[in-house]
Amino acid sequence: MRGIAEWLSGLQHHRVIGVVRAGEPELAYHMGACLAQAGLRFIEVTWDCPEVQTVIPRLQIAYPDCWVGTGTIRREAELEEALSLGVDFIFTPHTQREWLSRSHMAGIPLVPGALTPTEILQAYHWGAPAVKVFPIASVGGADYLRHLREPLGAIPLIPTGGVTRANAHVFFQAGAIAVGIGRDLFPQPWYSQRDWAGLVQELQQWLNGLGLTAGATMDSP
């Protein structure tokens, strides 16, 4: 099993976490498969997706070069189930010290949500490998992240909640180790028409424009 250090190293290289949220399991799988085929190596399938416990293993098997994790974990029972499932990483909207300890013991990175400098420092001191700065758009976007960067030093920060394909590069310039992007990765008309091949091509072009590696070509979504 890949460890937390390897996960963080991969994140520093690939820098985009694609967030999948869907109302049906097959759609969630197709969305995740498109992200993997486009070249994204970090895929988060939110825990509130139906049958997420089957979608994540399917994606892990089909795309072993990817890290497939989950997010929006809000209850301890959900955390324990996700850890037992063997997800590659976990995102939470908040910070709980005991959850960080539990995930660290399991060898699975857990990235907690925080917003203020105090919250971010506390999460990092409690063992978070990185901290999710959420919701970033509500507090100034990239400017807020830029102001955090100097006093917080080298703490790996992952802004989410308002990051798009159009502004991701601005967050990188502001010091983000990576960004989390959700629905904006599934633009029209490709998404509504379920044109998965067109969507893969669109995302590959965007990743190439960012200077990030693209081009996973395994099975069709």
The gist of it:
The protein is α/β, with parallel strands linked by helices and about 220 residues long.
- Structural class of the secondary structure composition? alpha/beta
Number of strand segments: 9
CATH architecture title? Alpha-Beta Barrel
CATH class: Alpha Beta
Order of helices and strands: HEHEHEHEHEEHEHEHEH
Low-pLDDT runs of 5+ residues are 214-221
Indicate the overall shape: globular
Strand order of the largest sheet: 3-2-1-9
Written overview of the protein:
The chain is of the alpha/beta class and 221 residues long. The chain has a single domain, classed as TIM Barrel. The protein has helices at residues 4-14, 25-38, 52-62, 76-85, 97-106, 117-125, 142-152, 168-173, 196-210; strands at 16-20, 42-46, 67-71, 90-91, 110-111, 113-114, 131-133, 157-159, 179-181. It has a four-stranded parallel β-sheet with strand order 3-2-1-9. The longest helix has 15 residues, at 196-210. The protein is globular. The model is unreliable at 214-221 (pLDDT under 50).
Observed structural traits:
alpha/beta, TIM Barrel, 4-stranded parallel sheet, 3-stranded parallel sheet, 9 helices, 9 strands, 44% helix, globular, disordered C terminus
Secondary-structure map:
Blueprint: H1 4-14, E1 16-20, H2 25-38, E2 42-46, H3 52-62, E3 67-71, H4 76-85, E4 90-91, H5 97-106, E5 110-111, E6 113-114, H6 117-125, E7 131-133, H7 142-152, E8 157-159, H8 168-173, E9 179-181, H9 196-210
Parallel strand pairs: 1-2, 1-9, 2-3, 4-5, 6-7, 7-8
